[in-house]
Design goal:
By secondary structure, the protein is an alpha/beta fold. It is 20% helix and 27% strand. Strands 6-5-4-3-2-1-14 form a 7-stranded mixed sheet. A 7-stranded mixed sheet has the order 7-8-9-10-11-12-13. β9 and β10 form a beta hairpin. The longest helix is centred in the middle third of the chain and has 12 residues. It is globular. Bound molecules: zinc ion (ZN) (2 copies). The site of one zinc ion has 6 residues, from α2.
């Protein structure tokens, strides 16, 4: 008889739960995931993320991996700051960035644009980039990751991600219009982290709360937590059957 997969608690902290434009005074996407006894990793690292981590009392130097959903500034623009913070604080732990095809080139460009000469600087830790194949699955530093191409033009294939660690499954929509990739990514997850940009207004290439409510029965996950909310959505963030994130909010798996 098969043994059930071992499970271990995982703590999810929203260091940043905001949209690109600071709605509600929130930091951009930066979700910190700590599996018990393992180094934490991030889901997205928007431009404000180094500040967001420090505001939440989370040590940026501990982070082993950053999973990136797509290559917009509010989801990956914090990486140059995270790398340079490590350089100036004597970090030795390697940092892996796992993102869509094109991540290595875009990270190089971002570093050279923001801090010329920084991309090739000597530092005491390696920055390794793993490019995730849309529709594929792989393991990155002990985290199983499955990638699903979604609908959100950003200069490279945008991804929804499904991560399995410690026997817990966390799915993340990233930014996207509704797509059948989302039920696939969310199936069996303990937690789906879902963009809810506007309450019902149709914004191209983004999810509204109305989209999620309409399709909730197709999302075979235990809980859905709303994030990446505009002012319009923040005014109506309390919705029965859904959790809502805020900066500093902690969700434990299993609950
Ligand atoms: Zn985006
Ligand atoms: Zn975004």
């Amino acid at each position: 008889m098969d043994q059930p997969a071992p499970t271990a608690p995982v703590t999810v902290t929203f260091a940043g739960s905001g949209d690109a434009f600071g709605s509600g005074g929130r930091y951009q996407a930066c979700i910190h995931v700590r599996p018990a006894g393992e180094p934490p990793f991030l889901l997205d690292c928007g431009t404000t993320s180094l500040t967001a981590l420090k505001a939440a009392g989370l040590d940026p130097g501990e982070i082993g991996t950053v999973f990136v959903s797509h290559l917009h500034g509010d989801h990956f623009g914090g990486l140059p700051f995270l790398v340079l913070d490590g350089q100036f604080t004597g970090r030795t732990r390697p940092l892996t960035v796992a993102g869509p095809p094109g991540t290595a080139a875009r990270l190089h460009q971002a570093m050279e644009t923001l801090f010329p000469g920084s991309a090739g600087a000597d530092r005491r830790f390696a920055v390794e980039v793993t490019e995730l194949v849309p529709g594929g699955r792989t393991a990155v530093n002990g985290v199983e990751v499955a990638s699903y191409e979604v609908v959100h033009p950003s200069g490279a294939p945008p991804l929804a991600l499904r991560l399995t660690v410690g026997g817990q499954v966390i799915a993340y929509t990233g930014d996207t219009a509704w797509t059948d990739a989302l039920p696939a990514a969310a199936a069996g997850a303990g937690l789906l982290i879902a963009e809810a940009y506007y309450f019902s207004k149709v914004i191209p290439y983004h999810l509204s709360f109305a989209d999620l409510a309409k399709h909730r029965s197709e999302l075979a996950c235990r809980r859905v937590v709303l994030t990446h909310m505009s002012a319009d959505m923040l005014a109506r963030e309390d919705q029965p059957g859904f959790l809502t994130a805020w900066d500093g909010c902690v969700i434990d798996l299993p609950d």
